[in-house]
Here is the input.
Amino acid sequence: MVKKREGYRPFAPAVLQERLNEYFEAPAEITDFPFMIFTLPVRAAERSNLGAVTHIDGSARVQSVSRATNPRFHDLISAFGRLTGVPILLNTSFNNHCEPIVETVDDAVAAFLTTAIDRLVVGDFLVEKSGARLPDSGILDLRVDVPPAYRVTQQTGRTGHPQFTLEFACSGLLARKTTPISSLAFRILVDTNPSNTLGVRCNELGITAATQVRAAIEEFHALWSERVVCLRPRG
Here is the structure.
């Protein structure tokens, strides 16, 4: 739903440290696995309860959680254990399939709004979606620009017609990613003023017909979901 993982790449179990050995075969000399960097065999009797975090070979990338180092997460797993009998939660890095791990609250909210995540917890706040997606008026009121790693390009295709893309511009070992965009999106993105909202840009360019505005909203919501454009609140 969010990470777009292949079936052979399960997620990681976060387990109460004091109950680690009930579910995993850990070496006697090591009792702490806080960083999800080691795999341990899942005890055969528990594999049916831990299908979402067990690899095909019966191992799991374990994270042990102690009350001393992470009391809030420890309390959460404990509460889940009381409800279900299994003191383990599925854990993974917070990002969608095409972006790095979130670093800020803004990153977390953007990931929340553009994926199928049901609820977001930030500190003491629980956030729920008011609807299926951000309303059109909200999208039009967001500032739009291109991330630093991307550039807007225009080329002539084989048919002689112009082709517009967003191109991942970083050099190095990463594969170059090219995302096709419409001529309408191209006109909006070549604006050099990052303080302009999507609605302001549409008005400046004479994009006022309901069908055109709807097309802009749909395209920029899709591009935002793929993290090839930025949509941010004003201010």
